[in-house]
Design brief:
The protein starts with a strand and ends in a 14-residue tail after the last helix. The chain contains 9 helices and 12 strands. It is elongated. It has a 7-stranded parallel sheet. The chain has a 5-stranded parallel sheet with strand order 2-1-3-4-5, covered by helices on one side. It has 2 domains: about 1-90 and about 275-295, 3-Layer(aba) Sandwich (Rossmann fold), CATH 3.40.50; about 90-270, Rossmann fold (3-Layer(aba) Sandwich). It has about 300 residues and is α/β, with parallel strands linked by helices. Helix content is about 30%, strand content about 20%.
């Protein structure tokens, strides 16, 4: 079997040892030097060039190099008959859980305010509520969001999550469907966005959402840059409707050097590090899906292009 590799964020030499160890019987070719396109049966991709997947006439499987698949579905020429598999990797899940816990704790314990006081040499106690009295909401209860919600619930936070369909997670109140979004937002003092980026969720972190949060809420976006309406966040911070924001993903990456987020005193910028793909653990997950392809088995992490994830 021959597989092709293309990526806008990482190089094939970084992936080659992991892919070859996990799938020793597969020949990997890095784009653009893939030889005869008709020989390619599997594509391992991150932001493949538009039309590139359609140029592989015998393609049988598309493997995403990350948890998101919006970079694949954005291709107007996408061959929709070919199965698309999102990456579900325990390493990435743990990494996201660690990031979300850290950032939620920072906001909960008022660390940004203490930092600002320190810069002005102010000694003033700020007492946060107990975790059980802090209402945290996670927008999106997929693989990453569910794991983060359960971990935060275990720390004692008053947890809730919103998803397209109902979920049953220990210690997490489930809100689902458009009709429950208002109630979910109204109780979320710290809102974490981990929902997939689809046509329905693009711009979901905008004025309409911010206005429905409790005044002074904190916002953490570790989903996709397209979820955030940047001008609306700046306005909400200026008005006091939002007190703090933590942003790991951006519409344009790297974030331009002159972007106002860099120097904003109420925004923390991290460079898309919440759940980076580890090639060695990712390759093992991909190998499992390749075995399912050969065996004719179902894919547990199959993407529905009509839904967007």
């Amino acid at each position: 079997m021959i597989a092709a590799f293309t990526s806008t964020w990482d190089s094939f030499p970084n992936w080659a040892p992991a892919l070859r160890r996990a799938m020793p019987g597969v020949e990997f070719r890095a784009a653009p030097a893939i030889g005869d396109p008709a020989e390619i049966e599997v594509a391992v991709v991150w932001w493949p060039p538009p039309g590139w997947l359609a140029s592989l006439p015998n393609l049988r499987l598309i493997l995403s190099q990350g948890a998101g698949v919006d970079h694949i579905l954005a291709d107007p020429l996408l061959p929709r008959h070919v199965p698309i598999i999102r990456l579900v990797d325990p390493y990435m899940t743990r990494s996201m859980v660690e990031y979300v816990i850290f950032q939620v704790l920072r906001l909960h314990l008022k660390e940004p305010e203490f930092r600002r006081q320190q810069s002005r040499h102010i000694w003033r106690e700020l007492t946060p509520p107990n975790a059980e009295h802090r209402r945290v909401g996670i927008l999106g209860l997929g693989e990453l969001g569910a794991a983060a919600a359960v971990a935060l619930a275990a720390l004692g936070f008053d947890m809730a999550g919103w998803s397209r369909s109902p979920k049953n997670l220990p210690g997490v109140a489930s809100f689902s469907g458009a009709e429950a979004l208002d109630s979910f937002l109204a109780r979320s003092e710290i809102l974490v966005c981990l929902v997939p980026l689809t046509a329905a969720t693009r711009g979901i972190l905008g004025r309409a959402t911010f206005d429905r949060l409790p005044r002074g809420a904190g916002v953490i976006n570790a989903g996709r840059g397209g979820h955030l309406v940047e001008a609306d966040l700046l306005a909400a911070l200026a008005s006091g409707q939002i007190s703090e924001a933590v942003l790991d993903v951006f519409e344009t990456e790297p974030l331009p050097a002159d972007h106002p987020f860099w120097d904003h005193p109420q925004i923390v910028v991290t460079p898309h590090v919440a759940a980076r793909t580890n090639p060695f653990t990712a390759a093992e997950a991909m190998a499992g899906n390749l075995r399912r392809l050969v065996a004719g088995e179902e894919f547990p992490d199959l993407v529905d292009p009509d839904v967007g994830y």
